[in-house]
Amino acid sequence: MSAAIHVSRVRTLYKLIFRVHRALPPELRILGDNYAREEFKRHKNCNPQEANIFLNEWTDYAINLAKQMKPLHQAKRKTVGKYLNPKLLDHMTDEQLVQLYELHKATSLQSDDSDQINVSNKDSTDR
To answer: Which residues have C-beta within 8 Å of that of residue 57, sequence separation ≥ 6?
Structure first.
């Protein structure tokens, strides 16, 4: 693949991810945008084999998320994301495992914060 085609593919995918993120709830959109931005920066100078894997995985992510953001899917399931196959953890580097854990903490914190906000909003409306 020529360099110009590769750069064009990366830019198109990058823009698509941010476009799909627009349909996410605000707190998930911020988290997703920041994570995608950092990952693309981190892989800017990777070797061609890693770049191919990286682009394929992010393409799958964008396709899956776009399907989940369709109104019909949202009306039926009201869920976003999918479970990670535990067998994949065996193939991850220590750095990837730490990053996955940090992402888990960030999403758990977001969830806890929104629950607290909902509870405090409910308390104030009950009065």
So the answer is: none
